[in-house]
Amino acid sequence: MKKLSIAISLMTLLFTPHLYASSKANVEFLNSGSVFAKSSNMPFSEAVRVDNTLYISGQLGITPGTLSLVEGGIKAEAKQTMNNIKTILKAHNLTMKNVVKCTVMLADMADWPAFNEVYQSFFSKPYPARSAFGTNGLGLGAKTEVECMAAFY
Questions:
Q1: pTM
Q2: Could you give phi then psi for residue 130, rounded to 5 degrees?
Q3: Are 25 and 50 in contact (CB under 8 A)?
Q4: Residue 49 predicted with pLDDT over 70
Q5: Measured between alpha carbons, how far is 103 from 48 in angstroms, rounded to an integer?
Q6: Are 102 and 74 contacting, i.e. CB atoms less than 8 angstroms apart?
Q7: Partner of 58 for a Cys bridge, out of 14, 76, 109, 145, CB 3.0 to 4.6 A?
């Protein structure tokens, strides 16, 4: 019985090397310059690719190439925010269909219905997973910020 147990343990080691081998993820820090100018010296990457997942930094409703929020309130900011995400995805050969998770931050939860109306116009079923929460303030005085994860498939 002891020999059988040892044989099974050895076979397990031989046929499941991935359990014991160390592997490194392929990580790339990306900045296409499509939303934030490459010369903007922002202290973050536009996106980070880890293997087949793209993590997009939180986006605001800024006019690309500037740090100026679009005018027009929550709907205008939400639309520009989502367009900025779409632009970043395109720069990395992805589309909104590749988005698997979004985190939505709202400066005022009363803006939830207006944000949702815009958000839904950028996705179709099946929708990505999503979390949302109210904040006590966002960068540049924005009304919304959205970060997303997308999968290469």
A1: 0.83
A2: -155, 145
A3: yes
A4: yes
A5: 16
A6: no
A7: 145
Residue 107 lies in a domain: yes
Percentage, residues of the chain above pLDDT 90: 75
Question: Domain of 39?
Answer: 25-151
Amino acid at 9: S
DSSP 38: G
Distance CA 114, CA 126 (A): 21
What CATH number is given to the structural domain containing 89?
Answer: 3.30.1330.40
Closest CA to 82 of 123, 142, 49, 52: 123
Q: Does residue 76 sit within a domain?
A: yes
| Confidence check: pLDDT of 17 > 70 | no
- Round to whole Å and give the CA distance between 42 and 36: 8
Q: How far is Cα 22 from Cα 20, in angstroms, rounded to an integer?
A: 6
Whether 85 and 47 have beta carbons less than 8 Å apart is answered as no
**N-term to C-term CA, the chain:** 47
Let me know: does 142 contact 57? Beta carbons within 8 Å: no
| pLDDT given at position 8 | 47
